[in-house]
């Protein structure tokens, strides 16, 4: 695009880029400092049984307030953390915080809900990730079967062999893999068959169009059928109203998550939702 501009406008373009780079660097610095001083927190969104309306688990989601910009969306700060490599350390904090907190809620309870944590590609492929996860579970005393890791398809496409090894090793220990934002990537069916996955999370963009949009409805019911035939749980993300829920129930989608049931909430509230106290 710079080529198409009048001569002289290059300098303006440069200044914009420079400003953007400086702002990015400042953001990185703030993220780094926040990690040191405990400036991140977690919220939890219930995952619900579509037939009974009962929560069966929660997804942990990171929250961050910048000292200079206020609340920054995870989409933005996770992307920056991924780019600068900070995601490994941030992800480790998320995992430890979520697992420790959740294990505390579950202690002495007869129910065994599960916890899911989002994991970035760089974090998954980092040497020591598998040991880290198992160590955190051991220290917290949470059975591995109560933990699931949410991974996007793109992660698996970048380094399919290593990603499969890591997830396979964790799965042998009992930790589940959930494919997040499912449908937005490029999974082929043959490839999906080889994956060590336990659940598919249908991306919100497909759920949004229910029940009216025929194309969205076909995608969702195809994913539900696929999950059933491969023996995978299917979770619909971003369910916001009763008509969407009804369509999902009719399609036989076993799990749902979204604002209709609950927004992501602080730990105390999530615990009360799961255990009724
Ligand atoms: P995700 O894992 O697909 O999480 C679902 C997102 O949809 C969350 O946004 C959630 O708040 C939002 N959501 C849930 N129900 C509804 C609904 O009914 N309607 C609408 N409009 N939105 C809904 P959030 O918390 O802003 O997170 C965005 C993304 O950031 C996540 O997408 C995930 O990819 C990433 N992320 C968040 N926390 C972490 C983390 O600790 N580690 C990593 N690696 N990524 C994270
Ligand atoms: Mg997720
Ligand atoms: Mg998602
Ligand atoms: Mg997402």
Main pleated sheet: 8 strands, mixed, barrel
Task: Tell me the structural class.
Answer: alpha/beta
Strand order of the largest sheet: 1-2-4-5-6-7-8-9
Low-confidence stretches: none
| Average pLDDT taken over every residue | 92
What percentage of residues falls in helices of 4 or more residues?
Answer: 40-55%
Rg result = 20 Å
Order of SSEs: HEEEHHEHHEHHEHEHHEHEH
Describe this structure in words.
With 277 residues, this protein is an alpha/beta fold. It has twelve helices and nine strands. It has helices at 9-37, 74-84, 87-106, 121-125, 129-140, 153-158, 160-172, 189-194, 204-207, 214-230, 242-251, 267-275, and strands at residues 40-49, 55-66, 70-72, 114-118, 147-152, 176-182, 199-202, 233-236, 255-256. The chain has an eight-stranded mixed beta barrel with strand order 1-2-4-5-6-7-8-9, surrounded by five helices. The relative contact order is 0.12.
């Amino acid at each position: 695009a710079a080529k198409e501009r009048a001569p002289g406008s290059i300098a303006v373009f440069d200044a914009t880029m420079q400003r953007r780079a400086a702002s990015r660097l400042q953001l990185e610095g703030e993220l780094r400092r926040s990690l040191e001083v405990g400036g991140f927190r977690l919220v939890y969104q219930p995952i619900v049984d579509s037939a009974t309306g009962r929560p069966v688990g929660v997804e942990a989601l990171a929250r961050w307030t910048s000292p200079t910009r206020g609340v920054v969306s995870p989409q933005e700060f996770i992307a920056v953390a991924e780019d600068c490599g900070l995601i490994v350390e941030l992800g480790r904090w998320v995992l430890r915080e979520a697992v420790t907190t959740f294990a505390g809620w579950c202690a002495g309870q007869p129910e065994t809900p599960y916890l899911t944590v989002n994991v970035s590609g760089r974090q998954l492929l980092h040497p020591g990730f598998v040991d880290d996860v198992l160590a955190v579970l051991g220290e917290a005393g949470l059975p591995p079967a109560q933990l699931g890791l949410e991974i996007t398809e793109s992660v698996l496409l970048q380094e399919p062999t290593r990603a499969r090894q890591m997830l396979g090793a964790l799965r042998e220990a009992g930790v589940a893999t959930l494919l997040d934002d499912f449908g937005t990537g490029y999974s082929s069916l043959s490839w999906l068959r080889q994956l060590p996955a336990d659940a598919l999370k249908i991306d919100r963009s497909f759920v949004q169009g229910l029940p009216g949009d025929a194309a969205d409805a076909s995608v969702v019911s195809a994913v539900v059928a696929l999950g059933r035939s491969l023996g995978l749980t299917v979770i619909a993300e971003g369910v916001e109203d009763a008509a969407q829920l009804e369509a999902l129930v009719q399609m036989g989608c076993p799990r749902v998550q979204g604002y209709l049931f609950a927004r992501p909430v602080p730990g105390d509230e999530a615990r009360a939702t799961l255990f009724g106290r």
